[in-house]
Amino acid sequence: MTVLGKAIAHESARGHVTGSALYTNDLLPRRGGAAYAWPVTVPHARARITAVDTAAALAAPGVLLVLGAGDVPGENELGPSRRDEPLFPSEVQFFGQAVAWVIAETEEAAKLAAGRVVVDVEPLPAVLSIEQGIAEESYLTEPLFMRRGDAEAALAAAPRRVSGELFVGGQEHVYLETNAALAEIDDSGHMLVHSSTQHPSETQEIVARVLGVSRNRVVVQALRMGGAFGGKEVQANAWAAVAAIAALKLGRPVGVRLDRHHDMTLTGKRHPFLARFEVGFDDDGRILGAKVELFADGGWCLDLTEPIVYRAMFHIDNCYRIPAITVMGRGVRTNKTSQTAFRGFGGPQGMVVIEDILDRIARTLELPPRLVRERNFYREGDETHYGQPVRDAARIERIWSALLRSSSYDTRRAEIERFNATSPHAKRGIAITPVKFGISFTATFYNQAGALVIVYADGSVQVNHGGTEMGQGLHTKMMQVAAHTLGVRLDQVRAMPTRTDKVPNTSATAASSGSDLNGAAVKRACESIRSNLAEVAAAELAVPACTVVFEDGQVFPRDEPSRALDFSALARKAYLARVPLFSSGYYRTPEIHFDKATGTGKPFHYFAYGAAVTEVEVDRFTGAYSFRRVDILHDVGDSLSPLVDLGQVEGGFIQGLGWLTLEECVWDARGRFATSGLSTYKLPGLGECPLELNVALLEKATEPGVVYGSKAVGEPPLMLAISAREALRDAVAQFGSGGIIELGCPSTPETVYFAIRERTEAAGGARRAAE
Amino acid sequence: MTSRPAPDPVFAFELNGETVTVSAPAHHTLLELLRYRQGLTGTKQGCDKGDCGACTVLLDGSPVLSCLTLAVTVAGRAVTTIEGLGAEHRRAEGRPHPVQEAFDRSGALQCGFCQPGMLLSSAALLRKNPSPTADEVRAALSGNLCRCTGYAQIIEAVLRAAAVERGEDPPAPAWSIEPRDEEP
Questions:
Q1: Where are the domains of chain B?
Q2: Topology agreement, domain B10-82 and domain B96-165
Q3: N or C: which terminus of chain A has fewer CB atoms within 10 Å of its end residue's CB?
């Protein structure tokens, strides 16, 4: 009985329900003599710092230090690729940026003293919107292009055209555990940093850089995170750097914990995007050509904006064949927080745009949006606009038709029409949308991973790998892979905290790739140990090594299960026989490449697919709505851990639903992030969830070339929530008579209300004109 | 000229079944007392403003947000944190709290940061209402935010715990979970 593919509880579930699972910030009260940090922030979107007076702060009770640029022993620079991100800036680049840090005996003392640091500034003009950035040519990247065919000619020749603009809002991560780091000099004199980071190796690199030491003097450990969603991929580094500089200076542990307000005002969000598009199509709704421009609001420094813009461009096709297309993408530099990775990494923004376009085409032609989507699907043999063959294109239609059946789409569509006919003030809408999401880091070199698996002489196993646990169940899956590959029971395996001195030079746990990359590395390490052990067992059992079976903690000849050795006993024998019982494993994704100059290549190892049907009811007078039912069919290959995958699909959908409906990032006229608390930034709670949520995983979906036939699951389900936005448009459509529906994004109740009003006024105007 | 600060108030309260005497500044919250003075880090600091529910504890059996509760106001009262939930139930009933078992088994958690608050709100609900409907569970937990899950397994876990508590066979879970050897 293998544990692979079994629905098992999360590896830390026991610790979570008893409160004993520790997070980075829980370590602070346990460290005697730990000092606490608090940022000094400046309330200007852009300003030159002319003077900093720390005297009053330093005189405050309990204050140990006020850190500034002069205290950085190495380089005052955090930027992982471009050096454009000073830790202690001389010019404020966004409202509320930290320019100094107070270190004190308690958090309260640090907080009180931070208010006594006087920062004199000279305000400077700021760029506060994408449009202003374009007008002032304030950019983070060059224009990036992908082209297929002659889009201009295709547009000119198309019998019909629509053009438009869509602003797609950002999203705050709101991982429930805010950013935290704790730095201390360990007993051997190394800088040990506990960090709530998705990318321990990069945190190590940045800490080493600001300290001015080589990386072998810094160890970063990531125990677990209370959620991350991309927000701790790059942006965990600053807090680790502050803690490390202070710990080195003071010779005692120093912790940084952002409170929620600081976490929301200091760290970046999902990129807001402005899309401008023109699309040509035929009378059946088939797209013939398209020109799309995607501008991303990247905030004050580069961060990950370029690959995020690329991923938006890669996903402008979603599941649809666009025969001729030119897509341009560009990162705009604004005086805001540095926008960063967030589950989907630009893909969702690209996908919302094409789904918006398809709805406009359908309503222009007065065709059902569902039909227009189907007519544009990729078929077997098609290539994407960047030249990658769409492997398993048939899976789109397979999922689509299975979901139409299981959700009783046609029956419900008819019911909804009957309901709407007799309900003037509440209307229902329904929509089905598909997802195709490319799996791999598009920066090819990130697609590598390592593992270190250790079997002790008593047969117990430790698994170290480069991935971090943020709640997504990666450790659970890695334990399943190790237990299955070694043929031991799950309770013989422990997943160790992620540390840079166990597995070096790792990639971020991001791009949904954690289990693909680390799983393959863990598997290879286990296979190497198992092959050593098989030799020992073969000698003991007097059979050829190739006939030795490892299963459930027992080792036996294939044809004689009764002659089983205990795995623990075999480990002991192997140790005595001087056979190595540990191994590293290494994996790199094969056959992926992308050429930026031509905008073509095979950037993805494969695609993950899914589809969702959402039904909504909307109130005419308030725009308020409730999601009545959601049906999802999603492709995770052969699931390594179905309960984990179910959680990822449900959670991803709800997070996407939040992004598209409730979560509105508002910056005011001064550039202040106005929605900087959970009272003004609305997350989906139990009250906003769909009343019925049916999730199924696609069966018979083995993915060749991925660890045990599985598929990545972290990001793709988020985009299933686009069905909710399209269902809202469908409901809004019921209030009037035909034509394109412009609907803001996020489609908050307020936005829906205005869309309905526009619709009803247009219908009223048309009636009056007819009379 | 600064006036001498008043000494911190000293007070006693029942913490997870045991009487403790503490001193804390009058402006400190129960959350700060629990995490930084008592070392009970199971109570999570999510927003410090009463928006997220992660710091929920039980005060005389009812859920309160410890980040909005001044520490001194619990004098003479009983506080239960996540560390005490199972222990108290084990003392009274000889087994861990059914919500702990149900959440452990049902995939109702991912990162776990919202769990302590979610579990204490659930335990308080079941004490008041042993047979809640799904809607009543939604209402009772509407102040507890979870950013990872889709809440579906959370509702299922509470309904499951309620059935166990009533001595009924729990509803079959959507997914079969491998049994555990030891108890929480």
A1: 10-82, 96-165
A2: no
A3: C
* Among the listed residues A388, A640, A343, the one whose alpha carbon sits nearest the alpha carbon of residue A516: A640
Q: CB neighbours (10 Å) of residue A456?
A: 14
pLDDT of amino acid B86: 85
- Which of A18, A178, A650 is nearest residue B150 as measured by Cβ atoms? A650
Q: Do A686 and B151 touch (CB under 8 A)?
A: yes
Distances (CA, A) of A447 to A64, A155, A511, A590: 43, 38, 10, 9
DSSP code string of A553-620: TEEEETT-GGGPEEHHHHHHHHHHTT---EEEEEEE--S-EEETTTTEEE--SEEEEEEEEEEEEEET
The residues in A 259-298 lying below 8 A from B, measured between CB atoms, are 259-260
The answer to whether residues A492 and A455 touch, using CB atoms and an 8 Å cutoff, is: no
CATH superfamily of the domain spanning B10-82:
Beta-grasp domain (3.10.20.30)
Please name the member of A8, A644, A689 whose beta carbon is closest to the beta carbon of B178: A8
CB < 8 Å from B in window 141-170 of A: none
CA distances from A613 to A583, A631, A686, A722, A740 (A): 46, 5, 20, 10, 21
Kindly state whether residue A298 falls inside one of the protein's structural domains. yes
pLDDT reading at B180 higher than 60: no
Considering only alpha carbons, which residue of chain B is nearest residue A693?
B152
Most confident of A122-126, B3-7, B166-170: A122-126
Any B CB within 8 A of A696 CB: no
Task: Identify whether residues A366 and A257 lie together within a single domain.
Answer: no
Taking CA atoms, what residue in A is nearest to B149? A651
Q: Say how many domains are in chain A.
A: 3
Q: Are residues A315 and A419 in the same domain?
A: yes
Q: Provide the pLDDT for residue B173.
A: 66
pLDDT tens column, B87-124: 877 777 777 899 999 998 888 899 999 999 999 999 99
Its sign, for the CA torsion A327, A333, A337, A338, is positive
Sequence length of chain B is 184
Question: Does the beta-carbon distance from B48 to A175 stay under 8 Å?
Answer: no
Task: For residues A430 and A485, state if they share a domain.
Answer: no
Residues of the domain holding A41: 13-125+173-266
| Closest CB to B109 among A16, A174, A686 | A16
Residue A165 is among the residues annotated as catalytic for this protein: no
Q: Which of B111, B135, B177 to mutate to test the interface with A (most CBs of A within 10 A)?
A: B111
Is A18's CB within 8 Å of B47's CB? no
What is B96-165's CATH number?
A: 1.10.150.120
Whole-number Å distance between alpha carbons of A604 and A440: 5
Is residue A132 one of the residues assigned to a domain?
A: no
ipTM for this model: 0.95
Residues A468 and A549 in one domain: yes
Q: Scanning every residue of chain B, which has its alpha carbon at the shortest distance from the alpha carbon of A678?
A: B51
Q: What is the pLDDT of residue B174?
A: 61
Chain length of chain A:
771
Residue A158 lies in a domain: no
Distance from CA of A577 to the nearest CA of B (A): 33
Q: How many angstroms away from the CA of A268 is the closest CA of chain B? A: 17
- Nearest residue on chain A to B45, alpha-carbon basis: A177
Edge to edge, what strands does the sheet with A63-67 contain?
A63-67, A97-104, A35-42, A254-257, A180-185, A191-195, A218-222, A498-499
Per-residue confidence (pLDDT) for residue B184, from 0 to 100: 40
Is A165 inside a domain boundary? Answer: no
- Report pLDDT for B3: 64
Asked if A683 reaches chain B (Cβ–Cβ under 8 Å), the answer is: yes
Q: Averaged in consecutive runs of 10 residues, what is the pLDDT profile of chain A (771 residues)?
A: 90 93 94 93 98 98 97 97 96 98 97 98 98 98 98 98 98 98 96 98 98 98 98 98 98 97 98 98 98 98 98 98 98 98 98 98 97 98 98 95 97 98 97 98 94 98 98 98 98 97 97 96 98 98 97 97 97 98 97 95 97 98 97 96 96 98 98 97 95 93 94 97 98 91 96 94 68 60
Interface of A with B in 7-26 (CB under 8 A): 7-10, 12-23, 25-26
A471:B113 CB<8 A: yes
**Catalytic residue of the set A131, A715, A758, A761:** A715
